[in-house]
Amino acid sequence: MTMSTTTLLALLKRQKYEFFSGVPCSHFADLFQRVSMDSDIMSVPAASEGSALSFAVGAALAGRRSVVALQNSGLGNIINPLTSLVQVNCIPTLLLISVRGHVDEPEDEPQHRIMGASTHALLDQLAIPWSEFDGTPHGFMAALVKAEEAFKRSLSFAVLVRKGQLSAGVGVAINGEQQADNYPLNVGDALEIISEALRPTDLVVSTTGFISRELFRLSDRPGNFYMQGSLGHCSAVAAGVALAHPSRRVVALDGDGAVLMHMGVLSTIGHASPRNFLHIVLDNEGYVSTGGQQSTSATSSLEAVAVACGYRAVRRCVTRAELSDAAARSLLAEGPHFLLCKVNQSHSHSLPRVTSRYTPEENKEAFQLALNQPRTFRLQAVPASGAR
C-alpha cells in the first residue's frame, strides 16, 4: 500500500504537529520539499540527525509539537540526544524513521544490513515504542494515536516507514532539475578533471552516495576507497590516512551535505595540518541521491569556514579551467588544501554501484595493498592563503 506525502502531512497537522526537521532519505522522496512548502508547519533542514532532534526539542520547549524524520542508519547519530536530552528531560518527539535493510525485504546495500536487522532491537533497548507503518492513511493515523499514548507517559514514539510506502505529492520537484543549470559542471565532469590531475601514487577516499558511484564509473582504481554509508566521515578517514602515511598524497572527495553534517572535522584537520592532504568538496547544494532535497550550503561559505579552520590554501571553483588549475596546483603544493567546486545536480542516468564489482572488504583490501606500495612525492612549500 502507498500513501502520498500530502496525506501524511494532513494527518500530522490534524494532530497539531507544527515543527519538522530531519535528514533526507530516498524512501521519503519529496517529503522534505513538501513540508518546506507548507505554511502550517515550520521546517528546518538539519545537517545531522542529532541536530534535527535538538531543533525539535527546542521547538517543543517553546510549545510546538515536533516531528523528526531520518533514515534508520541515522539512529546512531541521535542516541546521545535521545537519552541525555529527550528522555532525561521528558520531552517526547515523534520520529519518522525510514527503514533500509529490513530483514523481510530483498538484500540491500551492505551498509544498511546491520542497522536494518537491529532497528527494532535498538528502539526496544532505548525504551522507545514503535509501530510499523502499513502504507495506509488509517494505519498512519493509528500510529499517531499510539504516539499520543506514549507522549502521555513522556515517551517518544517511532513510526517505521518502508520502501514504496510513501508517494510524491502533486506539483513537487523531487529530482533537483530546477537547479541543474545553475553551474556549468556536474559531478561527473568535475571528477573527470580531478582524475586527470591525479598521479598513480595518489590515494583517494570518496564520500558515500553518487560521488563514489560516479568515481567508480569514471576512474576505478586500487587506490580508491569508496565510503559505503557513514555520511560525513569521508574527510576524517582521508585525513587519518594522510597523517598515518605522510609519504603519500591523499585526496578526500566530499559533498556539501557530508561536510555540513560534521563540520567540526574541518577544525581538526586544520589543527592537525596534514601536509599531504587535499580536501575537494563537490557542492551541488542538495542531497541528490535521496531525491534532490536542498542542503543549506547555498547560504553558507564552506571555503570561508576552511580558511577559519586553518587550511593552508583554499580555492573556490566553478568552471572547468578553474578546477583544472586548482587541482593541479594543489596536488603539487604543501597542504592541507581545500577546493570547493560548485556543481549542478545532473548525473549519468545509470550509475553503477561499487558493490556490483567489490564487497566493502575487497575494496578495503585493494586500497591497503595500494597504500603500502613504497611511494614518495615532493611537495612545494607555499605560504598560507585565504579563500580566492
Descriptive keywords:
388 residues; alpha/beta; Rossmann fold; 2 domains; 6-stranded parallel sheet; 14 helices; elongated
Describe this structure in words.
- With 388 residues, this protein is of the alpha/beta class.
- The chain folds into 2 domains: 3-167, Rossmann fold (3-Layer(aba) Sandwich); 178-371, 3-Layer(aba) Sandwich (Rossmann fold), CATH 3.40.50.
- It has 14 helices and 16 strands.
- The strands form 4 sheets. A 6-stranded parallel β-sheet has the order 3-2-4-5-7-6, with helices on both faces. A 6-stranded parallel β-sheet has the order 10-9-11-12-16-15, sandwiched between helices. Strands 1-8 form a two-stranded parallel sheet.
- α6 links the parallel β6 and β7 (157-161).
- α7 crosses α8 and α7 packs parallel to α13.
- The longest helix is centred in the first third of the chain and has 16 residues, at 110-125.
Topology:
Elements: E1 3-4, H1 5-14, E2 17-22, H2 31-36, E3 42-45, H3 49-61, E4 65-71, H4 75-87, E5 94-98, H5 110-125, E6 130-132, H6 137-152, E7 157-161, E8 166-167, H7 187-197, E9 203-206, H8 210-219, E10 224-226, H9 234-244, E11 250-255, H10 256-261, H11 264-272, E12 277-283, E13 286-287, E14 293-294, H12 302-309, E15 313-317, H13 320-332, E16 337-342, H14 360-371
Parallel strand pairs: 1-8, 2-3, 2-4, 4-5, 5-7, 6-7, 9-10, 9-11, 11-12, 12-16, 15-16
Antiparallel strand pairs: 13-14
Helix pairs in contact: 1-6, 3-4, 7-8, 7-13, 9-11, 11-12
CATH architecture classification name of the largest domain: 3-Layer(aba) Sandwich
**Uncertain segments:** 172-180
| Beta-strand content estimate | 15-25%
CATH names the topology of the largest domain as Rossmann fold
Q: Tell me the overall shape.
A: elongated
- What's the average pLDDT? 91
From the N-terminal CA to the C-terminal CA, the straight-line distance is: 52 Å
Order of helices and strands, N to C?
Answer: EHEHEHEHEHEHEEHEHEHEHHEEEHEHEH
Radius of gyration (Å): 22 Å
Strand order of the largest sheet: 3-2-4-5-7-6
